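Allow me, if you will, to draw on your knowledge of protein folds for a short while. Thank you for your consideration; the sequence and its tokens are set out here:
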Amino acid sequence: MHKRLTLFILCTTFSLWSTGVDFSHADWFVSPLGRSNASGKEDDPIDLATALSTSGPVKPGELVQLKEGVYEGRFVSTVSGTADSPVIFWAKPGTRVTIDGKNGSGDQVLHIMGEWVQFWNLEITNTSQTRTDMVEGVRFDAPNSKLINSVIHNNLQGIGFWSPAINSELYGNIIFNNGAEGEARGHGHAIYTQNKTGTKQIINNIIFFGYGFGIHAYTESGDIQGFNFERNVWFRTGASVSGSSTVGQSDGLLIGGLQPVDRVVVKENYSWVPVPDARSVRFGWGSTVVNEFIEIRDNYFVGNAVTQGQWKNAEVEGNHFFGAEIGPEPTDFPNNSFSSQLPTGTKTVLYQNKYDPRRIDVIVYNWNNHDSVPVNFEAMIASGNDFTVHSVFDIWGEPVLEGKYQGGPLRLPMGVKPPPQPRGFPDAIVGDDIPGKSFEVFIVRSGEGPVSSVKNKLIVNRNDFAFTVKLVRNTTLKITNQQSLVTGNAELTIHAVSGRVAARHRIDNLPVTTSHEYQIPATIKSGMYICTLKAGNIVYSRLFVL
């Protein structure tokens, strides 16, 4: 059975291996100096508030490109898309598009309310030097929506991901230094979330520092049901509170509250602490709550993994626990690795970003404190491609390594970037809260230009293309000749990104305004592919993930 396809725009050009996003096909352009009555073209952009409003001009299925710059104010997104035609607000990878909530009305920098909407590649922050004057970064109430590859930092709270956001997703975000210091403890979490209906996806996020917890799935009277926490990494959450704390101020992941936990998956997540008895993970809260079901699988947890409350059912397999206190008992869950000591040696983890295939997240454990650690990228970067490596501590600054990839391992320098301090407190993060050479997360980018999955599910059915290709029934490509006067045969080819031909299909005749459906062979395995239609002197290419 095929997985659902997500497809990526490529330039509609005469080159088979065209790799740049066709930015001329954004439906609307937005800039910090845009006007509400502008045309929305690149040289006459509209303002962000107008684009986000239901009374504005943006319609389902349209792409809104945010131009580089600082958007000052606090914004509410009420515009909605549909299941087949989401609205996408998108910034070109590598540009810095900042929404600064220092001034304005409302309690969030960005409040996402309308359904079937996606936000990509944004920086969401408050530039106030007084932390108690800040507001929450993102309040996410929209169902069936996504916040992708964004940077959320120095807000009163990072993201409030609440129950109305049914089946929504947080993916690839970098979240740090959110919250403020209270009289007794820090307040404000990286992600504070609750859920009842459907399943929230919290995947591939990088979470560090801040004043409260990392992921805080907690409630007193609401619900904690239906979550997928997958491939996230967190370290030293709570470290923005002034002064060093060896055991930590708060947990990187809490799943529990005064109501039962149910339908929760925790899979392939990673954590780091400097000592075995430091805080890291907590499953359950309180001693009397009877929780339903949780699956904990293939995680690499360094630090205490505490369990509380009662649990009716749990599947705990393939995990590595390194901590002074480990809640899951080895006798109850034997198919795991348990240690009361920190690991030794080095460990590297690489994840390719599913929405931005030229971004690779790299997690490096370096317990012996080597100056650099070799990491092999041969499976992800083609030889001869340019690359940059940034520490998550300095993602807009100078790379720690760059060049042209020649195959084999790259030696990533460890601990060369100082930690980003919380705004207004330049000396808050010190001592054991700084990983130094022992641990780091890097963002690697490859290729000459960004390729991003800008419009999902082949939503480029525009009249100014000679051809359109749409996904129907999840496993079928529907090819329509909009206006090409080609004669003779057309050929559809599916290539792996390595260049290997996975499938080839000939279309005998495709007159103007007619369509042809092609069933994707079940023999094609999951992965990234390029669909190319050749008709006469026209080549139409699209990148997709199966």
